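User: I'm writing a short methods note and want a consistent example. For YD repeat-containing protein, I'll paste the sequence; you return only the structure tokens, no commentary, since I'll be parsing the reply automatically.
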Amino acid sequence: MKVKTQLLLSSIVMNCLLLAACKKNGSGSNNWPAPMIKTETTNNNITSYRYDKQGRIVELVNGDWVRVDYSYTRDSLFYKTTEIATNAVQKVAAKLDPNGMLAAQEGTVRKYDDDGRPVEELSPPNSNGWQKRYKYYYNSATGLLDSTRQTESKLLQTRWLQTTVYTYYPDQNNTIGNENRGMGFMGKNSPRPVKISEIWRPKSVDPFREITNIMKLQYGYDEQGRIVVEDHTEDRADNTVVQWRTVYTYY
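Assistant:
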């Protein structure tokens, strides 16, 4: 369940903030920093979100599989994951830095730059002593995330595992980022939606080819400039092509 929980927190990897006026829903006036996603649906699987008045996530429900409840203190984030079918519960506590960003969770340490963008994530060593490190690289002119690089180290050895390279739509806004899911504590990301992402791995890791996945993304917007449709086309390492659509609704 631990892996599933981390995936739920981290699954939304290409994100950003679109500033907007305060919103209202059935609970009254809210001080929300951005358009807030209510549901996202992929292949008939619906994920729904609820937020507090500050726009922080308080509940995530993924279909009939899992519910995650979030609570906060000044320097901590707590989330409780419940498997809906079995009522099995797991509780996790994470440390927030003075700026309210996720700093440490179950041995994983995250660092951010002065703009609140993630720059590094360091996981604890595995049972064989290898420690994974994720680094984020930004374009100094545009502020967009150029690439992420994953390595692992042990003593004096370091080996490259994966690099993901991003290109963007320069004239479109992104409304499906961390802040739009109440997860600003994960860090701000690039302020434009991703057009293409390429995953590179060394052939020693993936024998098919060095570029193992190419993801192409297209978006549809509503009259308020919010992304309501996200179409994915994935060219995979085994030369298959997979397509799917995600549909978003907002409060």
